[in-house]
Write a structure and sequence with these properties.
The protein is α/β, with parallel strands linked by helices and 333 residues long. The protein has two domains: 3-198, Rossmann fold; 202-320, Cytochrome-c3 Hydrogenase, Chain A, domain 2, CATH 4.10.480. The chain has helices at residues 15-21, 28-34, 50-62, 96-106, 115-119, 168-179, 195-198, 209-213, 294-306, 310-316, and strands at 3-9, 37-41, 69-73, 76-77, 109-113, 132-133, 137-138, 141-142, 159-161, 280-281, 284-285. The strands form four sheets. It has a five-stranded parallel beta sheet. A two-stranded antiparallel sheet has the order 4-6. The longest helix has 13 residues, at 50-62.
Length: 333
């Protein structure tokens, strides 16, 4: 039996769809079909027009078409004053939030694609004039549009494929796991994210790890050194496999020289400080590795810095490999 997927766009930039279209597959629709996933409608992949979509929605609501997975991209806009009329579905006079509530009630699974749909994300930043929220979370607080106690017909809460944007494989792997019956409650973390990517840290596989180990820190954006101490990187705290599951087979934020801003986490959009700076208290970063007590970090950082090889220290403040490792016989057998 195929997994029938309906994908709707709510309040957001469309970045998760754009990411999906960059999936490492020669034929994305064929990849999905071969793995038991049938895309009933997607705003960028479907050729059907407005009336076709409205007919499909009606068929899903009446049960004439089985709705196995409802994917929502973008935050849910509840304003003004709870009416939802900041976002009315084209061709209808019905707010998108009402369509989502009705469709979620008949769907076997409900998926929030991206951090906007999961927690509110960028759309809910600042004063949040549109009263944007996630499907089942409002930042880290449970609730959102569908309520804290919502459970879809298949027995799972909202599946939060969080990221800004999501990695295309996180989407395809989640859909294919659902199609194969391989995604259950134990496969979701406490925030409803699939564990196959959320049980990893961005720090894992980072090419700057040697600099991190010696606390050889970058001082400016073009430097090769670790960006945790001075430039806002949260890779040691962010749940994602970005450095072991590379984007387009080659890159990640940290490999491109940008700090990880922890975009898979609730509230990432409003950290209370500039994204490119590391907040500190008495010279110590306030955001430390997720499992490390502060006293241990301070002691290890001091020891590491005193042992930093000259090569690592010089390279950390360079935009290229200035000093390669010494070439000599190692004595290995």
């Amino acid at each position: 039996m195929t997994l029938n997927v309906l994908w709707l766009q709510s309040g957001g930039c469309g970045g998760c769809s754009m990411s999906l279209l960059c999936a490492d597959a020669a034929d994305l629709p064929q990849l999905l079909r071969r793995n038991g996933v049938e895309m009933l409608w997607h705003p960028a992949l479907s050729i059907e027009g407005e009336q076709d979509l409205l007919d499909l929605l009606a068929d899903c609501l009446t049960g004439r078409v089985r709705l196995d997975a409802l994917c929502i991209e973008g935050a849910l806009l509840r304003g003004p004053q709870g009416s939802g009329r900041f976002h009315v579905l084209s061709g209808t006079d019905v707010p998108m939030i009402e369509w989502v509530r009705k469709l979620a009630a008949v769907a076997t699974h409900v998926l929030a694609v991206g951090s906007c749909a999961a927690w509110g994300g960028i759309t809910a930043s600042g004063s949040n004039p549109t009263d944007a929220c996630g499907l089942q979370f409002e930042d880290e607080r449970r609730g959102g549009l569908l309520g804290a106690g919502f459970v879809a017909r298949g027995g799972l809460p909202v599946i939060n494929i969080a990221g800004c944007p999501t990695h295309p494989d996180w989407i395809t792997d989640t859909l294919m796991a659902l199609a194969a019956g391989l995604l259950g409650t134990d496969d979701l973390d406490p925030l409803g994210r699939p564990r196959f990517y959320a049980d990893q840290l961005v720090h894992h596989g980072c090419t700057r790890n040697e600099y991190y180990e010696y606390k050889a820190s970058a001082a400016k954006p073009s430097d090769l050194g670790c960006t945790m101490e001075n430039m806002g990187c949260k890779g040691t705290q962010a749940h994602a496999d970005c450095n072991t599951r590379l984007w387009n087979g080659h890159g990640s934020c940290t490999r491109a020289g940008y700090a990880c801003i922890s975009c898979t986490e609730p509230g990432f959009q409003s950290p209370g400080h500039p994204f490119h700076l590391t907040p500190k208290l008495a010279g110590i970063p306030t955001g430390l590795p997720i499992d490390m007590p502060k006293a241990w970090f301070v002691a290890l950082a001091s020891l590491s810095k005193s042992a930093t090889p000259k090569r690592v220290k010089k390279n950390s403040h360079s935009d290229h490999l200035a000093v390669p490792p010494v070439s000599r016989k190692t004595g290995l057998r």
